[in-house]
Amino acid sequence: MIQIKEFIDSDISYAEKKANEFLASITEEQFIDVCYGTMVKMNPNQMASQRSTILVIYRTINDGG
Questions:
Q1: Using CA atoms, how far apart are residues 28 and 65, in angstroms rounded to an integer?
Q2: How far apart are the first and last CA of the chain?
Q3: Strands, E, within 1-65: which ranges?
Q4: Does an H or E element contain 21, and which?
Q5: Who is most buried in 3, 34, 46, 58, counting CB within 10 A?
Q6: φ/ψ of residue 14, rounded to 5
Q7: Residue 48 CB partners (closer than 8 Å, separation 6+)
Q8: CB 40 within 8 A of CB 50
């Protein structure tokens, strides 16, 4: 079965660390793709806030590889 795991944070180093930890826990055969996106949003006080998202697409172990 194909699954996704999403890592979201306003601090890219945290999301990157968590995504790398997850990637280290799966095999190369399970790995399909990684997608990355970032967004800057203005809050009511006109302060910019950044959100980064890393999406890992992978196969579960019982999917036959």
A1: 9
A2: 9
A3: 2-9, 31-42, 48-59
A4: helix 12-24
A5: 58
A6: -70, -50
A7: 40, 41, 42
A8: yes
Percent of the chain with pLDDT over 90: 57
Distance, in Å, from the CA atom of 58 to the CA atom of 65, rounded to the nearest integer, reads 10
DSSP state of 11: S
User: What is the pLDDT, as a whole number, of residue 63?
Assistant: 54
Token pair in block for residue 30: 């399970």
CB 32 within 8 A of CB 57: yes
Which pLDDT score, from 0 to 100, does residue 3 have? Answer: 97
Place of tokens 């968590």: 18
